[in-house]
Amino acid sequence: MSNDFPMVGFGVGTVIIMFLIYVAVMLIAIWIFYVIVRAAVTNGILRASRRGAFQNMVSPPAYSPQHTMNPNAPSGQAGPPYQT
Fold first, then answer.
1. Long-range contacts of 35-41, Cβ-Cβ distance < 8 Å, separation of 24 or more
2. Measured distance CA(64)–CA(70) in Å, rounded
3. pLDDT band (50, 70, 90) for residue 59
4. CB 76 within 8 Å of CB 70
5. 58: three-class secondary structure by DSSP
6. What is the Rg, in whole angstroms, of the alpha carbon atoms belonging to the chain?
7. What pLDDT was estimated at residue 52?
8. From its phi and psi, is residue 39 left (phi > 0), alpha (psi between -120 and 50) or beta?
């Protein structure tokens, strides 16, 4: 039984080429997964917009100085000014 390194007969060049092929296969697999997920998300968004899912959505309210932090309010919560 031999205790030598199992890749001794291959040479350094072959090991490097095998590693590059391994990395290329992994990158292609990740890219294919990305393309599939992107297509699924795009189809989902298009299907939802055709259904009218985004019609009742409103944008968040614009910044208003009267809704800033009020140190006089109980617990410093935002809202209209605290009146005593």
1. none
2. 13
3. low
4. yes
5. coil
6. 30
7. 74
8. alpha
One-letter identity of residue 5: F
* Residue that is written with structure tokens 């095998």 in the block: 18
Cα 27 to Cα 5, 15, 24: the distances in Å are: 28, 18, 5
Give the global pTM: 0.50
pLDDT at 76 over 80: no
pLDDT value at 66 more than 90? no
Alpha carbons within 13 A on the beta-carbon side of 19: 8
- Give the mean pLDDT of 17-36: 96
Calpha distance 36→56 (Å, rounded): 29
31 pLDDT more than 70: yes
Amino acid at residue number 9: G
